[in-house]
UniProtKB/TrEMBL annotation:
This is Glucose 1-dehydrogenase. It comes from Pseudomonas cavernicola. It comes from the Bacteria. The keyword Ligase does not apply. InterPro entries: NAD(P)-bd_dom_sf, Sc_DH/Rdtase_CS, SDR_fam. The keyword Oxidoreductase applies. Its EC number is 1.1.1.47. It is an enzyme of class 1 (oxidoreductase). GO terms for molecular function: glucose 1-dehydrogenase [NAD(P)+] activity. Belongs to the short-chain dehydrogenases/reductases (SDR) family. Keywords: Oxidoreductase.
């Protein structure tokens, strides 16, 4: 990846107030990207945006609940109104549902997981694609999970929603490949983001690490490095892929 891979690229990131989204924003700002950041956490979003602007980055930030299509659309429109285009859309916002048996999972929990993890990605893709069609191309990256490629006991609602993200990614990638829009998904194993460490899954870190051939979890920086590779201009022939970043688990 060239040092100027993202120079002056306009990049939209949802879930930008913490975790992968915050780290992506910081890495991209350092590479010269222009950023459109969204998160439902207004205080966290304001902090990240202020720190990036103080460091010289060009940033527009909008409070954005990805379960509300109008707010996702508004973030895309803010990117275009401020910077004139949208080169990269990263649909990163997500939630991890409580661990419980399949038969104890409630309809409300299923609905919430789909609202954030699936519909939020769908809304992002829908309005990003519309803009990219108008401007002649672009790149979209959806943050799925290893739970979108296989089973994850006691996380039925999360698994179902993340499998849907992979399906949406592949479908849209095929549909818009000839229009110059690349669409991929990244599928990390558990990593030490706040979403994981502040959940009951975080309490099982050592147990989960033993399932990896590397005998450890990935770091957020390692996952973000793959995300940057997937979106880079040089990576022009990859689309419709769901890339596992899992320390070798899927090799079994």
């Amino acid at each position: 990846m060239h040092i100027d891979s993202y120079q002056d690229q306009v990049v939209m990131i949802t879930g930008a107030a913490s975790g992968f989204g915050e780290l992506l924003a910081r890495r991209l700002a350092g590479m010269g990207a222009r950023l459109a950041l969204g998160d439902r956490n207004a205080a966290g979003l304001a902090r990240v945006a202020a720190e990036l602007r103080e460091a010289g980055a060009r940033v527009v930030a909008e409070v954005c609940d990805v379960t509300r299509e109008a707010e996702v659309k508004a973030l895309v429109e803010a990117a275009v109104a401020t910077f004139g285009r949208l080169d990269v859309g990263i649909n990163n916002a997500g939630i991890l549902t409580p661990m419980k048996s399949f038969i104890d999972t409630s309809e409300d929990e299923l609905d919430l997981s789909f609202a954030v993890n699936t519909k939020g990605v769908f809304f992002g893709m829908k309005h990003q694609i519309r803009q990219m069609l108008a401007q002649g191309g672009g790149v979209i990256l959806n943050v799925a999970s290893m739970a979108g490629l296989g089973g994850a006991p006691k996380l039925a609602a999360y698994v179902a929603a993340k499998h849907a993200v992979v399906g949406l990614t592949r479908t849209a990638a095929v549909e818009y490949a000839r229009q110059g829009i690349r669409i991929n998904a990244v599928c990390p194993f558990y990593s030490a983001t706040p979403m994981v460490t502040e959940s009951e899954v975080g309490e099982k870190e050592q147990f989960l690490a033993q399932g990896s051939p590397m005998k450890r979890l990935g770091t957020p920086a390692e996952i973000v490095s793959v995300m940057l590779m997937l979106c880079a201009r040089e990576n022009g022939y990859m689309t419709g892929q769901a890339i596992a970043v899992d320390g070798g688990i899927s090799a079994f």
